[in-house]
């Protein structure tokens, strides 16, 4: 079975582009537009990795990271953002993020980061 990732981002063009990209790389992708939707999906589906945007239409992706660390502590969560600044990276790592990706990174770099956290076949 293919690895299954949860991709949480409220920006439709980014969500659609990366979903298509990861699917072409052989991954199963489920998307969520809000933190609440992500929590509901995670309650009924097991994911190998979650990719979570920091700014989710008024919600905080770091809070969603905290939810995942409490409820699914073995699932790696990668923080995904267009924001800059090392303080955000430090906050994400302190909260338990397995990785950190910027929206400006080339797609290959994003795939490499996700691949590091996928189960080995």
What's the topology here?
Elements: E1 4-8, H1 12-24, E2 28-32, H2 35-44, E3 49-53, E4 55-56, E5 59-60, H3 61-71, E6 77-81, H4 86-94, E7 99-102, H5 107-115
Parallel strand pairs: 1-2, 1-3, 3-6, 6-7
Antiparallel strand pairs: 4-5
Helix pairs in contact: 2-3
Features:
121 residues; alpha/beta; 5 helices; five-stranded parallel beta sheet; single chain
Quick recap:
The protein has five helices and seven strands. With 121 residues, it is α/β, with parallel strands linked by helices.
Task: Return the string of H and E elements.
Answer: EHEHEEEHEHEH
Question: According to CATH, what is the class?
Answer: Alpha Beta
Assembly state of the chains shown: single chain
- Helices and strands: which structural class? alpha/beta
At the fourth level of CATH, the homologous superfamily is Response regulator
How many strands, what sense, and barrel or not for the largest sheet? 5 strands, parallel
**Could you give the distance between the termini?**
10 Å
Rounded to the nearest angstrom, the radius of gyration is: 13 Å
| CATH architecture level-2 label | 3-Layer(aba) Sandwich
CATH topology: the name is: Rossmann fold
Q: What does the average pLDDT come to?
A: 90
What is the approximate shape? globular
Folded structure, characterized:
It contains five helices and seven strands. It has about 120 residues and is of the alpha/beta class. It has one domain: Response regulator (Rossmann fold), CATH 3.40.50.2300. Strands 2-1-3-6-7 form a five-stranded parallel sheet, with helices on both faces. A two-stranded antiparallel ribbon has the order 4-5. Strand 4 and strand 5 form a beta hairpin. The radius of gyration is 13 Å and the shape is globular.
